[in-house]
Amino acid sequence: TEAIAATGHNYLAVVTAPTCTEKGYTTYTCSVCGDSYTADETEAKGHTKGEAVIENNVAATCTTDGSYDEVVYCTVCNEEISRETVTVPATGHSWDDGEVTKAATCTEAGEMTYTCMDCGETYTEAIAATGHNYLAVVTAPTCTEGGYTTYTCTVCGDSYVADETAATGHSYEAVVTAPTCTDGGYTTYTCSVCGDTYTSDETAATGHSWDDGVVTTEPTATTDGVMTYTCTVCGETYTEAIAATGEVESINNISISELTEVPEGLAGIYSSVTELTNDLIARVVSVSAGYSEENVVIYDVKLQFSRDGGITWEDATEENFPAEGITVTLSYPNDEVKANYENYDFVVLHMFTSGEKAGQTETPSVTKTADGIEVTLTGFSPVAVAWKLSAAASPQTGNDSIIQFGIVAILSGGASLICVGIAIRKKQRKSA
Questions:
Q1: Cβ atoms of 153 and 134 closer than 8 Å
Q2: Kind and range of the H or E element at 332?
Q3: Per-residue b/e over 180-202, b at no fewer than 16 CB within 10 Å?
Q4: Tens of pLDDT, residues 399-419
Q5: pTM tops 0.90, yes or no
Q6: Residue of 9, 163, 213, 295 with fewest CB within 10 Å of its CB?
Q7: How many CB atoms lie under 10 A from the CB of residue 272?
Q8: Phi/psi of residue 265, nearest 5 degrees
Q9: Contact of 296 with 259, CB cutoff 8 Å
């Protein structure tokens, strides 16, 4: 055998550069067998200082110190090179101008509170009591009570009185009240200062002095009159009755209107106003030839009378209707007839409404006048009037002994007749 010579190492170099703290070097490694070694060392570069930075900053307060760290780092490897802690002194309090938290009174101290504007800590100082500020009010003495001065504090209202003086006593003035007819006289004593008053020195009333009296209400047939007596001194009055005369005054009044209901006495004969009206028309036109149903008016005629001079009114009845009858004047049915009344004939029909004659009729005589148709009726309601043209006028004479009435009439069918109303007055002796 022969020896084959060793090939020798085939080293590859890898350079490791120096750092701030470590040396640099070159590593040689055989690419065949891996054998390795280092050589070619270089010195470490050392740190490169950067600008100092602040860390761990703790702010100072009013009462506590603060602090912070000044730290320097290497600008290459960022390793801390140095650290120094710096102390910051406490700032101390920053007090405001203070606030009154308890006001001082006249007798008690107050309190001023100061507050730190940074941390809110407070402290207080006393405010001295103000003392009273008294205002004096003088109360003058009166007739019955002494005077005094009231001292009152204008701040807290504390009050006391002093400087008292004696009462002055009353100063009376006398006023005499003379006696009257009904009241006695007396003297009134009044204090001119306070108004206190009392009376004394009384005298008796003088009594009334009556005149001869005046008739203030005339007596009537049924009611007493009044005589009034007046005191000539004080004007007071009293009255005495004047006996009634014993005469009865009767006042009558007539009303005429449209027939709107069946009279009570005819209710058993007619069931409606229409039935009653139709019967009245038929009867009145049959009284004499030439009258037609178109020329007929129906009236509701009533009599009222008063026994007390017109204060109260009663409807007339069969018992108290005037025995001689009542003369009334009925207005003409229309303007044409009124203007030419002398050329017309008229017939009037009255139907009785009570007693044995209920439903029976009468046809009173007619007198034509410039004011209307004049008839004398012995009973009232209902009344029918018919008219027709005539060749000549033949007015009949009425009963001149009866006082005539002007009336207001409303015609059946709606036409209206208007006249003036007049009351008749009759006197008769009151029975004993």
A1: yes
A2: none
A3: bbeeeeeeeebbeeeeeeeeeee
A4: 333 333 333 333 333 333 333
A5: no
A6: 163
A7: 10
A8: -70, -15
A9: no
How far apart are the C-alpha atoms of 35 and 47, rounded to whole Å?
Answer: 34
Q: DSSP letters of 17-84?
A: ---SSS-EEEEEEETTT--EEEEEEE------B---EEEEEE---SSS-EEEEEEEEBTTT--EEEEE
- DSSP assignment of 108-176, as one string? S-EEEEEEBTTT--EEEEEE------EEEEEE---SSS-EEEEEEETTT--EEEEEEE------EEEEE
The token duo for 109 is 């101290």
Residues 6+ apart with CB under 8 A from 114: 95, 96, 97, 98, 99, 122, 123, 124, 125
User: CA-to-CA distance for 299 and 63, rounded, in angstroms?
Assistant: 124
Give residue-wise pLDDT tens across range 65-114: 999 999 999 999 999 999 999 999 999 999 999 999 999 999 999 999 99
* Bond into 322 cis (ω within 30): no
Looking at residue 342, the DSSP 8-state letter turns out to be: G
**What backbone torsions phi and psi does residue 380 show, to the nearest 5 degrees?**
-120, 155
pLDDT in tens, 283-311: 999 998 899 999 999 988 877 766 666 66
Determine contact, residues 430/222, Cβ cutoff 8 Å: yes
Pairing outcome for strands 122-127 and 110-115: antiparallel
